[in-house]
From TrEMBL:
Full protein name: Hemerythrin-like protein metal-binding protein
Alphabetized CDD domains for the sequence: Hemerythrin (cd12107)
Superkingdom as given in the UniProt entry: Bacteria
SUPFAM superfamilies found in the cross-reference section: Hemerythrin-like
InterPro entries the record matches: Haemerythrin_Fe_BS, Hemerythrin, Hemerythrin-like, Hemerythrin-like_sf, Hemerythrin_metal-bd
Coiled coil ranges: none
Native organism: Candidatus Nomurabacteria bacterium GW2011_GWC2_42_20
GO MF term set: metal ion binding
Length: 137
């Protein structure tokens, strides 16, 4: 097992509801990466890709629910960033489905790795103070 993304201490936001969700997301991305390297059959790849999509949706709605509750100042740009990610993954999934090959494009893995680490360390970090102020620890 070779991870695409190794969990780092700096990914912890100090919010007990959110941190395990981020860990789980990175775990699914690593599972997808390893399945790709093992030339796993397409049906299984699509199952993992769907697991990632569904869990990301669940995670984004957790964050967005709190943005609403706390009237978070950056809720609009942050939600837009989630929407752009969802759109990009939907496009990737669609082209993968219509493609004959079982190999996922490398740029999907690149995108997943850089998007999630950049998002957690960048945009997600920004809401920590607001969430903490509202008692979410
Ligand atoms: Fe986020």
């Amino acid at each position: 097992m070779n991870d695409l993304i190794a969990w780092r201490e700096s990914y912890n936001l100090g919010i007990s509801e959110i941190d395990p969700q981020h860990q789980k997301l990175i775990g699914i991305i690593n599972k997808l990466y390893n399945a790709m390297r093992a030339s796993t059959e397409k049906e299984e790849m699509q199952t993992i890709l769907k697991e990632l999509t569904d869990y990301a949706d669940y995670h984004f709605s957790t964050e967005e629910k709190h943005f609403e509750e706390f009237n978070y100042v950056d809720k609009v740009p942050h939600t837009k960033s989630h929407d752009a990610y969802k759109e990009k993954i939907a496009q990737f999934s669609k082209s993968y489905e219509s493609n004959e090959s079982n190999t996922l494009p490398f740029d999907l893995m690149d995108y997943l790795g850089s998007w999630w680490t950049g998002h957690i360390l960048g945009e997600d970090r920004k809401y920590v103070e607001c969430f903490h102020e509202h008692g979410l620890k």
